[in-house]
Specification:
By secondary structure, the chain is an alpha+beta fold. It folds into 2 domains: 2-219, Jelly Rolls (Sandwich), CATH 2.60.120.620; 247-313, no CATH class. The chain is 22% helix and 17% strand. Fe (ii) ion is lined by residues 130, 132, 200.
Length: 320
Amino acid sequence: MQYNSENMTFDTKPTLSDTQVLEFCKQGYIILDGVVPKEINEKVSKYLAKKIPPKPSKIPSHLTLEMLKETLDSPVEPNIILLEDWFINEVLLNSDLAGVLRSLLGKNVGLPVLVSKHSTECPQPAQPWHHDGDVVFGPEVSFLETFYYPQDTPIEMGPTDVVPGSHIGLNKFVNQADELSIATVASAGSFVLHSQSIYHRRGRSTGTGIRDMLKFNYWRTTSPTRDWIKQPEFDFATADYGGHFAGRYYAHMFYWLCGKEKDFKLIGGQGWPWNKPNQIAPSYGYNAQEGYKPDWSRLHEQCNCGINFTSHDVNSAYTK
Ligand SMILES: [Fe+2]
């Protein structure tokens, strides 16, 4: 692990393979269960409850120590914790998380500059399903959002519900959210790494007590390239990119991550990337010289996800 405290970036060995990166493109999230040690999780909870004196490793020039300390009184953004050496080393640079981030965001991953604290007094009803504010839908993986649960978060404590695959913004995930969703049940010290565009809600809780969750983003600082663990047997022509409507978007995202976005062309129908294991020969259309890009802006026609149509307009058709 190389951590550059000046630039607030890190580099480490990627841990995901081709198949796992493609699986992330299809699911839009990865759960790393219980990877932060118990004593650190407890320290985080105590720190947030102001039972440990803050000792930030540096004070950014536009802030003062007082201003930083006040962030602990903020109900939503205790940003001072991002400057604590122990939190950087034991949580932000957790080796399991870092390997996955390095795979999906390339070299020199940028650390979070803002943290959101989502504390819920249980029991609570479920939140309405939603995409978070300022969402965009497109093939780029320019940043990734992470939930960190410092305490056990069983179903009774209302972990976040996500709809797998919904980060592409397709109407079917919105319309079938109850049916397709999963609860991110996790033990203390877990990360739920995900696309910020995933359709989600705070789940219904029936237990009692406070459920804490911290949310922060990691950032890409380099152009995408296929520098994770390459599998010699991985075949771009026959890989399983997903089913009708959605597979072409997941494939587009995978190609973008590989640094091959310019090569991505669709001819439609049963042409690549559509394929079935039992078909008698590879799909036509693989490596087509002429073709189309998926039109990400059309996905939300008649969408009822809660974002108004004006907001959707900012995500115009993918034209790069
Ligand atoms: Fe949300």
